[in-house]
Structure of Rhodanese-like domain-containing protein:
Amino acid sequence: MLINRSIQTFHRPASRFRLSSPSITHRLLTSGPGNSELVISPKDLQSLVQSDEQAVSIVDTTWFMPNSSRKSAEEFFKQRIPGSQFLDLDKVASSHPLGLKHMMPSAQTFAQACGSMGIRPDSHVVLYDTHGVFSSPRALFMFKAFGHQFVSVLNGGLPRWATEGYKIDANPPATIPSVSYPTPSVSSGVTRDYEFMVSNARLDAKGDPTSSIVLDARPKGRFLGTDAEPRPEIRSGHMPNSVSLPFNAFLETRDGKDGAKYTVIRPREEIQSVLEDALGADLVQDIIDGQRSVTTTCGSGMTAGVLWLGLKLLGAKHISLYDESWTGYADPSRKSNIVA
C-alpha cells in the first residue's frame, strides 16, 4: 500500500538554525568534516524538507551507460521526487580533446548549473538516481570538489523512496527561480590526469609508499581483458599495478516495488571488509590514517564515484578520481601500456 507522504515545499529561504532538540538537521549539520552526512535515507530526506532550519534542493543525477537505450532526462519528466530538479552530468561538464563525456566542469559552469536549479552555497543538496546508487556518487564528488558544504546522496535513490511509500510526482516539473551562486574554486588534487596515471603506473602500488593505489571500479572481466568494453573503439585490460575492485562490491541489492531491484551503499564495516579483502588490512589502515593515497577509476569516471564515496565513508583522507578513467587511458591515439 502506497503511503501518501507528500512534500509541500523544498526551497524555503535559509533561516537561522533552531536546534533546540536533536533533529535530523542537527545531526546532518554536526556530523564532522564537511558538516553533512554523505549518505541519508528517505526518512532523513523527508525530515529535512519538513523542517524550516535549512533550504533543501533535491537533484536527480541519473545517468545511463552509452549502450543503454534509456534516457535519463525523459524519465525525469515522467516521474521524480516532488520538487526535484534534473542535473545532466554529460552537459554540466568540460569539453575534452578526445571527446570524453562528463568531465569535471569548470567552476563557472558548475556555479551556473547550481544557480539555475535554485541552489545556494548554504543549501543542503540531496542527490539521487533511479538505479538506487550508481551515478549520484559522481555528482556528490563534483559538489564536494567545488567545496559545497551541505550535500548528500539519497541511499537507494528513487526506487527506495517509492518502495518506502513516499510520493512520486508525475506532473510536469515545476520551474525553480534561478539564484546567484558564487564561482567556487576546485579543491587541490581531487582529480588526476593522464600524465599522472602513466607515471604512477610504473610504481609498485603496494610496496612503494609514494605511489597512489589505483582502484579500478569496472567489472572484473573488463579489467582482465576477457570482456569487451561498452565503447567498441576501446580495448579492455587494465593499467599496470592497478587493483580490481568492481564498484558493486560496495553496494547491496534490494528488492523494490513491483519486483524491481535497486542498490544501496553498504554499511561502513562491510565496505572496510571488502577493501581489506582486496588490499589487506594493514594497507587499508594506512589509507584510513592518511599514510597512503588512493585514486579511483572506472570506464569513464562515473562509477569511480561509488568507490570514492565508500572510501570517504571510511574516513580516508587522500582520495582522488581519475576523471578520464579507462576511456581516456586506453584511447587508441595514446598507445598506453595496457595489461590484458
